[in-house]
Protein backbone atom coordinates (compact mmCIF):
# COMPACT_ATOMS: atom_id res chain seq x y z
CA UNK A 1 0.00 0.00 0.00
CA UNK A 2 2.77 2.40 0.99
CA UNK A 3 4.47 1.90 -2.38
CA UNK A 4 1.32 2.94 -4.06
CA UNK A 5 1.40 6.34 -2.41
CA UNK A 6 5.10 7.02 -2.99
CA UNK A 7 4.67 7.38 -6.69
CA UNK A 8 2.38 10.41 -6.78
CA UNK A 9 4.52 12.21 -4.18
CA UNK A 10 7.63 11.84 -6.34
CA UNK A 11 5.75 12.93 -9.37
CA UNK A 12 4.55 16.08 -7.65
CA UNK A 13 8.14 16.86 -6.59
CA UNK A 14 9.20 16.75 -10.20
CA UNK A 15 6.25 18.92 -11.05
CA UNK A 16 7.32 21.47 -8.44
CA UNK A 17 10.84 21.54 -9.88
CA UNK A 18 9.50 21.96 -13.37
CA UNK A 19 7.20 24.70 -12.22
CA UNK A 20 10.05 26.48 -10.41
CA UNK A 21 12.26 26.35 -13.50
CA UNK A 22 9.42 27.60 -15.69
CA UNK A 23 8.70 30.48 -13.33
CA UNK A 24 12.40 31.34 -13.18
CA UNK A 25 12.66 31.43 -16.97
CA UNK A 26 9.50 33.49 -17.15
CA UNK A 27 10.84 36.04 -14.65
CA UNK A 28 14.16 36.32 -16.49
CA UNK A 29 12.23 36.81 -19.70
CA UNK A 30 9.97 39.43 -18.29
CA UNK A 31 12.78 41.24 -16.51
CA UNK A 32 15.33 41.21 -19.28
CA UNK A 33 13.75 40.46 -22.57
CA UNK A 34 10.18 41.22 -23.30
CA UNK A 35 10.54 44.94 -22.80
CA UNK A 36 13.78 45.17 -24.75
CA UNK A 37 12.69 47.68 -27.29
CA UNK A 38 10.12 49.12 -25.02
CA UNK A 39 10.26 52.20 -22.98
CA UNK A 40 10.29 52.66 -19.27
CA UNK A 41 8.85 55.96 -18.30
CA UNK A 42 10.56 57.44 -15.26
CA UNK A 43 7.74 59.08 -13.40
CA UNK A 44 9.89 60.70 -10.74
CA UNK A 45 9.06 64.19 -11.83
CA UNK A 46 5.35 64.14 -11.25
CA UNK A 47 5.79 67.04 -8.84
CA UNK A 48 6.88 69.32 -11.65
CA UNK A 49 7.99 72.73 -10.49
CA UNK A 50 6.40 74.28 -13.54
CA UNK A 51 3.39 73.24 -15.56
CA UNK A 52 4.21 72.32 -19.16
CA UNK A 53 3.81 75.64 -20.82
CA UNK A 54 3.33 76.56 -24.41
CA UNK A 55 6.54 78.32 -25.25
CA UNK A 56 6.25 80.43 -28.38
CA UNK A 57 8.94 82.31 -30.29
CA UNK A 58 8.14 85.57 -28.57
CA UNK A 59 8.58 84.02 -25.12
CA UNK A 60 11.91 82.53 -26.21
CA UNK A 61 13.18 85.88 -27.54
CA UNK A 62 12.12 87.66 -24.38
CA UNK A 63 13.88 85.08 -22.21
CA UNK A 64 17.04 85.34 -24.32
CA UNK A 65 17.13 89.09 -23.80
CA UNK A 66 16.33 89.14 -20.09
CA UNK A 67 18.97 88.87 -17.33
CA UNK A 68 18.92 85.08 -16.84
CA UNK A 69 21.03 82.70 -14.73
CA UNK A 70 22.76 81.21 -17.77
CA UNK A 71 22.98 83.88 -20.47
CA UNK A 72 24.15 82.20 -23.65
CA UNK A 73 25.90 85.12 -25.31
CA UNK A 74 27.85 83.40 -28.03
CA UNK A 75 27.92 84.25 -31.69
CA UNK A 76 27.21 81.64 -34.37
CA UNK A 77 30.17 81.14 -36.67
CA UNK A 78 28.18 78.75 -38.84
CA UNK A 79 24.38 78.46 -38.72
CA UNK A 80 23.44 76.26 -41.70
CA UNK A 81 20.21 78.19 -41.98
CA UNK A 82 19.14 76.30 -45.08
CA UNK A 83 19.85 72.86 -43.73
CA UNK A 84 16.44 72.58 -42.20
CA UNK A 85 14.26 74.72 -44.43
CA UNK A 86 12.07 71.97 -45.89
CA UNK A 87 8.89 71.26 -44.04
CA UNK A 88 9.12 67.49 -43.86
CA UNK A 89 12.19 67.11 -41.62
CA UNK A 90 11.44 64.22 -39.28
CA UNK A 91 14.69 63.86 -37.35
CA UNK A 92 17.80 65.98 -36.91
CA UNK A 93 20.77 64.17 -35.42
CA UNK A 94 23.34 66.56 -33.98
CA UNK A 95 26.73 65.01 -33.25
CA UNK A 96 28.95 66.87 -30.79
CA UNK A 97 32.50 66.73 -32.08
CA UNK A 98 35.80 68.39 -31.18
CA UNK A 99 37.44 70.53 -33.84
CA UNK A 100 40.41 68.17 -34.19
CA UNK A 101 38.20 65.13 -34.84
CA UNK A 102 37.92 65.43 -38.63
CA UNK A 103 38.54 61.69 -38.95
CA UNK A 104 35.62 60.90 -36.66
CA UNK A 105 33.32 63.16 -38.65
CA UNK A 106 34.43 61.65 -41.95
CA UNK A 107 33.82 58.14 -40.67
CA UNK A 108 30.30 59.11 -39.57
CA UNK A 109 29.59 60.79 -42.92
CA UNK A 110 30.59 57.59 -44.69
CA UNK A 111 28.70 55.26 -42.36
CA UNK A 112 25.64 55.73 -40.14
CA UNK A 113 25.44 59.48 -40.77
CA UNK A 114 25.20 59.32 -44.56
CA UNK A 115 21.97 61.22 -45.22
CA UNK A 116 21.49 59.73 -48.68
CA UNK A 117 20.32 56.52 -46.99
CA UNK A 118 17.04 58.27 -46.33
CA UNK A 119 15.46 58.76 -49.69
CA UNK A 120 12.66 61.00 -48.48
CA UNK A 121 15.32 63.42 -47.32
CA UNK A 122 13.65 63.74 -43.94
CA UNK A 123 16.72 63.02 -41.79
CA UNK A 124 19.54 65.51 -41.23
CA UNK A 125 22.89 64.72 -39.64
CA UNK A 126 25.16 67.53 -38.56
CA UNK A 127 28.07 68.29 -36.26
CA UNK A 128 28.26 70.77 -33.40
CA UNK A 129 31.61 72.44 -32.68
CA UNK A 130 33.07 75.24 -30.64
CA UNK A 131 36.25 77.14 -31.54
CA UNK A 132 39.69 75.59 -31.34
CA UNK A 133 42.62 77.44 -29.73
CA UNK A 134 44.85 75.95 -32.39
CA UNK A 135 44.75 78.23 -35.46
CA UNK A 136 45.66 75.43 -37.82
CA UNK A 137 42.86 73.20 -36.55
CA UNK A 138 40.42 76.10 -36.67
CA UNK A 139 41.33 76.88 -40.28
CA UNK A 140 40.86 73.25 -41.25
CA UNK A 141 37.41 73.33 -39.60
CA UNK A 142 36.42 76.37 -41.67
CA UNK A 143 37.50 74.64 -44.88
CA UNK A 144 35.67 71.47 -43.88
CA UNK A 145 32.52 73.39 -42.92
CA UNK A 146 32.44 75.08 -46.32
CA UNK A 147 33.06 71.88 -48.24
CA UNK A 148 30.63 69.68 -46.33
CA UNK A 149 27.92 72.07 -45.23
CA UNK A 150 27.10 70.06 -42.12
CA UNK A 151 28.82 71.92 -39.27
CA UNK A 152 27.19 74.30 -36.83
CA UNK A 153 29.59 76.28 -34.70
CA UNK A 154 29.61 79.02 -32.08
CA UNK A 155 32.52 81.13 -30.91
CA UNK A 156 33.04 79.62 -27.44
CA UNK A 157 36.16 77.61 -26.67
CA UNK A 158 35.63 73.92 -27.47
CA UNK A 159 36.59 71.84 -24.43
CA UNK A 160 35.23 68.95 -22.41
CA UNK A 161 34.23 71.25 -19.55
CA UNK A 162 32.34 73.45 -22.01
CA UNK A 163 30.06 70.62 -23.17
CA UNK A 164 27.03 72.20 -21.50
CA UNK A 165 27.56 75.35 -23.57
CA UNK A 166 27.59 73.18 -26.69
CA UNK A 167 24.34 71.51 -25.73
CA UNK A 168 22.71 74.89 -25.17
CA UNK A 169 24.01 75.90 -28.61
CA UNK A 170 22.28 72.84 -30.10
CA UNK A 171 19.00 73.74 -28.38
CA UNK A 172 19.33 77.33 -29.55
CA UNK A 173 20.13 76.29 -33.10
CA UNK A 174 17.17 73.92 -33.22
CA UNK A 175 14.59 76.43 -31.98
CA UNK A 176 16.03 79.19 -34.19
CA UNK A 177 16.82 77.44 -37.48
CA UNK A 178 15.05 74.10 -37.39
CA UNK A 179 11.84 74.54 -35.44
CA UNK A 180 9.84 72.65 -38.08
CA UNK A 181 11.62 69.34 -37.36
CA UNK A 182 9.72 66.76 -35.34
CA UNK A 183 12.61 65.28 -33.34
CA UNK A 184 16.15 66.27 -32.39
CA UNK A 185 18.78 63.80 -31.25
CA UNK A 186 22.04 64.71 -29.52
CA UNK A 187 24.92 62.23 -29.72
CA UNK A 188 28.76 62.12 -29.80
CA UNK A 189 31.39 61.47 -32.46
CA UNK A 190 32.60 58.16 -30.98
CA UNK A 191 29.16 56.61 -31.22
CA UNK A 192 27.44 54.15 -33.48
CA UNK A 193 23.84 55.24 -34.05
CA UNK A 194 21.38 53.19 -36.04
CA UNK A 195 19.18 55.96 -37.39
CA UNK A 196 16.95 53.53 -39.29
CA UNK A 197 16.11 51.62 -36.12
CA UNK A 198 15.52 54.89 -34.29
CA UNK A 199 13.21 56.24 -36.99
CA UNK A 200 11.30 52.94 -36.97
CA UNK A 201 10.81 53.19 -33.19
CA UNK A 202 9.78 56.82 -33.32
CA UNK A 203 7.24 56.07 -36.03
CA UNK A 204 5.85 53.11 -34.10
CA UNK A 205 5.62 55.12 -30.90
CA UNK A 206 3.89 57.90 -32.71
CA UNK A 207 1.26 55.44 -33.90
CA UNK A 208 0.79 53.80 -30.50
CA UNK A 209 0.79 56.73 -28.15
CA UNK A 210 0.74 60.39 -28.93
CA UNK A 211 4.39 61.20 -28.84
CA UNK A 212 4.24 64.34 -30.87
CA UNK A 213 4.92 66.15 -27.62
CA UNK A 214 6.84 65.71 -24.38
CA UNK A 215 9.41 63.20 -25.60
CA UNK A 216 12.81 62.96 -23.88
CA UNK A 217 14.18 59.45 -24.47
CA UNK A 218 17.52 57.67 -24.11
CA UNK A 219 19.48 55.60 -21.57
CA UNK A 220 18.47 56.44 -18.01
CA UNK A 221 21.08 57.16 -15.34
CA UNK A 222 19.62 56.99 -11.91
CA UNK A 223 21.11 57.51 -8.43
CA UNK A 224 24.46 58.73 -9.76
CA UNK A 225 26.74 60.53 -7.27
CA UNK A 226 28.92 63.49 -8.26
CA UNK A 227 32.66 62.77 -8.45
CA UNK A 228 34.23 65.05 -5.81
CA UNK A 229 37.90 64.17 -6.25
CA UNK A 230 40.42 64.37 -7.79
CA UNK A 231 39.74 67.76 -9.41
CA UNK A 232 41.24 66.66 -12.72
CA UNK A 233 38.81 63.74 -13.05
CA UNK A 234 36.73 63.77 -16.21
CA UNK A 235 33.55 63.79 -14.15
CA UNK A 236 34.70 66.08 -11.31
CA UNK A 237 32.02 68.44 -10.09
CA UNK A 238 32.57 70.91 -7.25
CA UNK A 239 30.09 71.76 -4.50
CA UNK A 240 29.68 75.20 -6.08
CA UNK A 241 28.63 73.60 -9.36
CA UNK A 242 26.27 71.06 -7.79
CA UNK A 243 25.69 70.93 -4.08
CA UNK A 244 23.53 67.82 -3.59
CA UNK A 245 24.84 64.28 -3.13
CA UNK A 246 22.85 62.56 -5.86
CA UNK A 247 22.10 63.78 -9.36
CA UNK A 248 18.50 63.82 -10.49
CA UNK A 249 17.62 61.09 -13.02
CA UNK A 250 19.10 61.99 -16.37
CA UNK A 251 19.70 60.46 -19.78
CA UNK A 252 23.21 59.52 -20.84
CA UNK A 253 24.76 62.18 -23.07
CA UNK A 254 25.84 59.44 -25.49
CA UNK A 255 22.45 59.76 -27.14
CA UNK A 256 19.04 61.20 -26.36
CA UNK A 257 16.05 62.23 -28.45
CA UNK A 258 13.65 65.09 -27.85
CA UNK A 259 10.48 66.16 -29.60
CA UNK A 260 10.58 69.78 -30.76
CA UNK A 261 8.28 71.08 -28.01
CA UNK A 262 10.65 69.49 -25.46
CA UNK A 263 13.61 71.18 -27.15
CA UNK A 264 11.91 74.57 -26.71
CA UNK A 265 11.18 73.89 -23.06
CA UNK A 266 14.77 72.73 -22.50
CA UNK A 267 16.16 75.84 -24.13
CA UNK A 268 14.16 78.17 -21.93
CA UNK A 269 14.93 76.09 -18.82
CA UNK A 270 18.65 76.09 -19.71
CA UNK A 271 18.77 79.88 -19.97
CA UNK A 272 17.34 80.04 -16.47
CA UNK A 273 19.51 77.33 -14.88
CA UNK A 274 23.09 78.03 -13.72
CA UNK A 275 25.50 75.90 -15.77
CA UNK A 276 27.44 72.87 -14.51
CA UNK A 277 30.03 70.98 -16.55
CA UNK A 278 28.29 67.62 -17.12
CA UNK A 279 25.92 68.35 -19.97
CA UNK A 280 23.74 65.28 -19.52
CA UNK A 281 23.35 65.88 -15.78
CA UNK A 282 22.59 69.49 -16.59
CA UNK A 283 19.82 68.38 -18.94
CA UNK A 284 18.49 66.22 -16.09
CA UNK A 285 18.44 69.28 -13.82
CA UNK A 286 16.60 71.28 -16.51
CA UNK A 287 14.18 68.38 -17.05
CA UNK A 288 13.38 68.31 -13.37
CA UNK A 289 12.88 72.05 -13.32
CA UNK A 290 10.59 71.96 -16.35
CA UNK A 291 8.72 68.79 -15.36
CA UNK A 292 9.97 66.82 -18.38
CA UNK A 293 9.96 63.07 -17.73
CA UNK A 294 12.96 61.10 -19.02
CA UNK A 295 12.13 57.82 -20.76
CA UNK A 296 14.50 54.88 -20.83
CA UNK A 297 14.73 52.95 -24.07
CA UNK A 298 16.58 49.63 -23.98
CA UNK A 299 18.00 50.12 -27.46
CA UNK A 300 20.02 53.10 -26.22
CA UNK A 301 23.21 51.66 -24.73
CA UNK A 302 26.07 53.82 -23.47
CA UNK A 303 28.76 51.15 -23.34
CA UNK A 304 30.50 49.37 -26.15
CA UNK A 305 27.94 46.84 -27.20
CA UNK A 306 29.63 43.72 -28.60
CA UNK A 307 29.26 43.99 -32.35
CA UNK A 308 27.18 41.47 -34.21
CA UNK A 309 25.52 42.17 -37.52
CA UNK A 310 22.08 41.32 -36.20
CA UNK A 311 22.18 43.47 -33.06
CA UNK A 312 23.63 46.48 -34.83
CA UNK A 313 21.24 46.29 -37.76
CA UNK A 314 18.07 45.57 -35.78
CA UNK A 315 18.20 45.93 -32.03
CA UNK A 316 20.37 48.66 -30.67
CA UNK A 317 20.00 52.36 -31.41
CA UNK A 318 23.24 53.60 -29.83
CA UNK A 319 26.54 52.02 -28.82
CA UNK A 320 29.65 53.78 -27.52
CA UNK A 321 33.47 53.91 -27.90
CA UNK A 322 34.28 53.29 -31.54
CA UNK A 323 37.30 54.60 -33.39
CA UNK A 324 36.73 55.85 -36.94
CA UNK A 325 38.47 52.74 -38.29
CA UNK A 326 36.17 50.48 -36.29
CA UNK A 327 33.10 52.33 -37.50
CA UNK A 328 34.12 51.89 -41.12
CA UNK A 329 34.81 48.18 -40.64
CA UNK A 330 31.51 47.64 -38.81
CA UNK A 331 29.61 49.47 -41.49
CA UNK A 332 31.14 47.36 -44.20
CA UNK A 333 30.12 44.21 -42.34
CA UNK A 334 26.59 45.54 -41.96
CA UNK A 335 26.30 46.19 -45.70
CA UNK A 336 27.55 42.81 -46.81
CA UNK A 337 26.19 40.25 -44.33
CA UNK A 338 22.71 38.88 -43.96
CA UNK A 339 21.02 40.60 -41.06
CA UNK A 340 18.68 38.03 -39.55
CA UNK A 341 19.09 37.28 -35.83
CA UNK A 342 18.32 33.81 -34.54
CA UNK A 343 16.14 33.80 -31.42
CA UNK A 344 18.93 32.44 -29.20
CA UNK A 345 21.29 35.16 -30.31
CA UNK A 346 18.67 37.84 -29.89
CA UNK A 347 17.91 36.53 -26.44
CA UNK A 348 21.48 36.57 -25.20
CA UNK A 349 22.43 39.89 -26.74
CA UNK A 350 19.41 41.52 -25.17
CA UNK A 351 20.11 39.89 -21.82
CA UNK A 352 23.68 41.17 -22.05
CA UNK A 353 22.57 44.71 -22.87
CA UNK A 354 20.23 44.81 -19.90
CA UNK A 355 22.73 43.33 -17.46
CA UNK A 356 25.47 45.76 -18.48
CA UNK A 357 23.07 48.67 -18.16
CA UNK A 358 22.17 47.58 -14.65
CA UNK A 359 25.74 46.85 -13.55
CA UNK A 360 26.97 50.16 -14.88
CA UNK A 361 24.73 51.87 -12.34
CA UNK A 362 26.69 50.07 -9.62
CA UNK A 363 30.18 50.35 -11.19
CA UNK A 364 30.00 53.43 -13.42
CA UNK A 365 33.74 53.71 -14.02
CA UNK A 366 33.91 50.19 -15.41
CA UNK A 367 31.72 51.14 -18.34
CA UNK A 368 32.01 54.89 -18.69
CA UNK A 369 35.73 55.34 -18.20
CA UNK A 370 36.34 57.67 -15.28
CA UNK A 371 39.82 59.16 -15.04
CA UNK A 372 41.69 62.31 -15.93
CA UNK A 373 40.60 64.38 -18.91
CA UNK A 374 42.86 64.05 -21.94
CA UNK A 375 42.46 66.94 -24.32
C1 LIG B 1 26.71 58.25 -49.05
O1 LIG B 1 26.10 57.21 -49.77
C2 LIG B 1 26.00 57.46 -51.18
C3 LIG B 1 25.17 56.36 -51.80
O2 LIG B 1 25.52 55.11 -51.31
C4 LIG B 1 27.40 57.56 -51.77
O3 LIG B 1 27.34 57.83 -53.14
C5 LIG B 1 28.16 58.69 -51.06
O4 LIG B 1 29.48 58.74 -51.51
C6 LIG B 1 28.14 58.47 -49.54
N1 LIG B 1 28.73 59.63 -48.90
C7 LIG B 1 29.91 59.58 -48.26
C8 LIG B 1 30.39 60.82 -47.63
O5 LIG B 1 30.57 58.56 -48.21
C1 LIG C 1 34.46 77.90 -22.21
O1 LIG C 1 34.23 78.88 -23.20
C2 LIG C 1 34.46 80.22 -22.77
C3 LIG C 1 34.06 81.13 -23.90
O2 LIG C 1 34.86 80.92 -25.04
C4 LIG C 1 35.91 80.40 -22.36
O3 LIG C 1 36.14 81.69 -21.91
C5 LIG C 1 36.26 79.40 -21.27
O4 LIG C 1 37.61 79.44 -20.98
C6 LIG C 1 35.89 77.98 -21.73
N1 LIG C 1 36.07 77.08 -20.60
C7 LIG C 1 36.88 76.01 -20.65
C8 LIG C 1 36.98 75.20 -19.43
O5 LIG C 1 37.46 75.69 -21.66
UniProtKB/TrEMBL annotation:
Listed under GO cellular component are: Golgi membrane
Q: Which residues cross the membrane?
A: 14-33
What keywords are annotated for this sequence in UniProt?
Glycoprotein, Glycosyltransferase, Golgi apparatus, Membrane, Signal-anchor, Transferase, Transmembrane, Transmembrane helix
One GO process term, biological-process aspect: protein O-linked glycosylation
Q: Does the keyword Transferase apply?
A: yes
GO molecular function per UniProt: hexosyltransferase activity
Specify the pathway. Protein modification; protein glycosylation
The family database entries (PANTHER family) matched by this protein are listed as: BETA-1,3-N-ACETYLGLUCOSAMINYLTRANSFERASE, N-ACETYLLACTOSAMINIDE BETA-1,3-N-ACETYLGLUCOSAMINYLTRANSFERASE 4-LIKE
What is this protein's record name? Answer: Hexosyltransferase
Please report the organism this UniProt entry assigns to the protein. Answer: Branchiostoma belcheri
Amino acid sequence: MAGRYKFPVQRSKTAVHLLAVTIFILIVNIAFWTDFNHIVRYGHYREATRKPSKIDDLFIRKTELSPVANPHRHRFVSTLENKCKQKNVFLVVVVTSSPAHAKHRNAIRKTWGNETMFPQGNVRVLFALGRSDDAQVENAVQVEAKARGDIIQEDFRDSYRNMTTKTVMILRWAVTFCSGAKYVMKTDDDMFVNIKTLVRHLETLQREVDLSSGLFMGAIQTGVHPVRSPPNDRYYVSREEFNEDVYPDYLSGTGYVMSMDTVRRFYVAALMTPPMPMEDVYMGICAQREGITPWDHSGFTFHRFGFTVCTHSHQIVTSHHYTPTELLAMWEALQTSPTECGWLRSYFSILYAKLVKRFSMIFPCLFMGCGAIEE
